[in-house]
Amino acid sequence: MIHTPGGLATKPILYLFTQDNCVNCPAAKAVVNEAFDGSDSVQVKTVDLQKMDPDFEFLLLEHQIFIASTPSIILENNGNMKLLYSGKIPDVDDIRREVQDFA
């Protein structure tokens, strides 16, 4: 979640989890970029699964989210987290709809 001087921001954050030698990760990243590039409605962050911050990993576990495969996509909004995709490449329209429905 983004902390701002006035409090908590309401802009959702989409996390794209990748790792080296992931054959579907470049395609998933391209879909995410196409879906949200230039968008003010969602912030996109790419996370290398092998270099993930332990505090962030703990946060995922608190939300009962476990990354079993890559690419994985998680959406965080207003303190809530949801695993949208795990191990598959999303469709541009589907991921836009998922984000809009959760936000």
Q: What's the arrangement of secondary structure elements?
A:
Elements: E1 3-4, E2 7-8, E3 13-18, H1 25-36, E4 43-48, H2 54-62, E5 72-77, E6 80-86, H3 92-102
Parallel strand pairs: 3-4
Antiparallel strand pairs: 1-2, 3-5, 5-6
Work out the helix count.
Answer: 3
For the record, the CATH class is Alpha Beta
Morphology call = globular
CATH topology: Glutaredoxin
Beginning-to-end CA distance, first to last residue = 13 Å
From N to C, what is the helix and strand string? EEEHEHEEH
Strand tally is 6
Could you name the CATH homologous superfamily? Glutaredoxin
Percent in strands: 25-35%
Which blocks of ≥5 consecutive residues have pLDDT under 50?
1-7
Largest sheet strand order: 4-3-5-6
Largest sheet: 4 strands, mixed
C-alpha-based Rg, rounded: 13 Å
Q: What is the CATH architecture term? A: 3-Layer(aba) Sandwich
Q: What class do helices, strands and sheet pairing give? A: alpha+beta
Total domain units: 1
User: Helix amount, in percent?
Assistant: 25-40%
Q: Mean pLDDT across all residues, rounded?
A: 89
